[in-house]
Amino acid sequence: MPPNIHTESSTTRAGNAFQEICSQAAKGTLLLGIAIVFFALMTLSAAGAAAEDLDRQLNEPNRPWHIVADELSYDDTAKVYNARGNVQITQGDKKISADQVRFDHENMTVEASGHIVVSSGEDVISADSLTFDLEREEGQVSNGRLYFEKNHFIVRSDNLQKTGKDTYRADRASVTTCDGEKPDWKITGRNLNVTIEGYGTAYHAALWVKNVPILYTPWIGFPVKTKRQTGLLTPQIGYSSRKGYEYDQPLFWAINKSSDATFYSHYMSDRGNKFGTEYRYASSPLSKGTTMFDYLDDRRVDSVTGDDPGSPERDWGYVENTGDDFLRTNRDRYWFRTKNDQELPGNFKALFDLDIVSDQDYLTDFKRGYTGFITTRDYYNNEFGRDLDDYNDPVRLNRFNVNRYWSRFNLNAEARWYDDVIARTQDLPDTTAQRLPFIQFNGSKQAVANTPLFFDLSSSYTHFYRDTTTTDNGVTRDHRIDLYPRGYLPLDVGRYFTLEPSVGLRETAWYIADDVDPTSDDAGEDYQHREFWDIGLDLSTEIYRIFNGGEGQQPLKHTLNPRITYNYVPDYAQSSHPDFDAIDRIEASNQVTYSLSNLFIQRRAVQQKPELSDEAPGYRYHQMARFDIGQTYDFNEAFEDDPDKWKNGESREPFRPVFARLQITPGRHFRLSADADWSVYDNEPVSHSLLSRISDNRDDVLTIEHRYTRETDEDAGDGVNSLVVDGLLRLTRPLSLIARYEYDFYADEDLETTLGILYDAQCWSLDLRYTRDVDEIMYAFEIRLKGIGGFESGIAP
After folding, report:
1. Bridge partners of 568?
2. pTM of the model
């Protein structure tokens, strides 16, 4: 008997030849099953990956096949093998079953009939009858149905034929992702001809809603790939008061296994057609990148007088709202952005980010949509963990970074270029200090050999480059080195307290080279340095109690952490040194901070796997709540006689605002975080924020956020007082209401109002949105046939 075949029969056992033939018959059945898979593939791309997996999994020669039937027999004259009654052929999680299997060994043909089911995991092929020629790789299946669990694809055909090694044909076929004999939608076609890794054609293709055809084409041609499928994605349709009628159509291109691209054509009746492209690659698990570019030849430009015929009596920019006082007069508008991660030898890693926009209003104009700021920012945060500068920030960060992390040290070498969009587009002097390069080498807190001492380290080198040719006919190049080691000596005070004194030593050196004109008397070099020390004391303890609770309740641990810290930095004259950032101006400090932290941690049992049910139960620890409160007292202000050095310039206020921080997360359906700073002199908050999120098992969600920062001056406009409410309410299982509201209390105006209806059925969804913000009113409409509009766009190294 062949080693990979096992047979069983309730009435008889056939010989070794029969078992081998049944294995071949099984493979023939599988090949035809894969043909059905490929039919789904040519209609909907995402099924291709499943087909490839099925082909690979069901043809594993080293795993044994197990054949069971009620009757096994062999006709020596006709050289035909027969299996009848509950025929089952299995290999791992793969299974083929039928009422009857007949194999003609002489002609290498297989016939199966009666309740044919081919399954691999959750993927299932069913049919009434099957015939297959193993040598010619031709065959057909009648009344076939294919189901893929991953994408919920269901393909039906009365007569599907495999006409060659890579060619298939079906007289009539349909595909859907809806359950039931009468699906909500389906796509049908006639005279379907397909060549795998080539092209397919079909006649009289139609999209049906229930029993009503709504879209029809007499002929269609399409590429057929076993990987991701190139094709059109679901469009976005809408209307905007600033853009007119909108239609945004994406086209997905599956380039190869490790890269793909999407092209966008965004038609706006009032503004023109904005074209966009997005390219993604992943050459290894740690090497990936995404580059996006959009371009618009805008029909509208900023005009105050209304004399410009392209902008009749209307300001198409945001001068009134942004307050930048600069018109947007360019028609050529674009946004180029990219983020890339690259694995390097020696466990080094490189990061490369670019963010270049044509004008200061572009990202405000295009915040939403497929290529809008919000979608782009969310994508980069999720995929790369790195944010973009805010849409209304005219200074955009570009950088190239090389880093390496050890267990106790880390190295970051980075070139940073800040692009001032207004200065660039308005031909204004740009004296931004670029960091070319900026190098950091830091060490985490760690023991010094076998001594009781600990230390940490912060160090950096920065080369500041400023293009000042517009102001003094030259450029400036300044260098700075900053070293800041700190030593600690933890001490136990009695049995209950820990005292940790620390000393920091800081050395900063500047080398200034003014390249105004190397031949002039103004050119020169300047070397400056600064040395100072600071001390700190940290006194803390921990008090805790464990509450076991009643029967069926998990233990809860409450921990109290009282803490007093003292920090002293001497007053050092620094006005003669360069001033690029906070490192150049270290403020004097003589402060004590006293605080109390409350932590509530619950131990929860972890559900064990069935095979580990005899093992001791596992546990995880969940922080249910944390509350911190504290205050700082400033000795310098308490004894300062010069009113110019008081914080408010009017009176001494050595007691800083009381700060409080609260986080509550009792379970997955509720989360609350809040913080506040309270002035003990004014008896009012300096700032506070509140964020709460409530959900339930139906996935109803309500999020409320309020942020407040007191204005230092009513005319300065530096305060924040806004409320954001975001919610989703499920009226029924498929029907939901969506709402978002943002209000500015200082300006007494609505910043954003969004209302929407989402109908999310089992195999299709409908999304209707109305949005009104300060500058624009928008209506958006999107209908998605699940599996049709979402072409597989994920890439793998």
Report:
1. 535, 590
2. 0.76
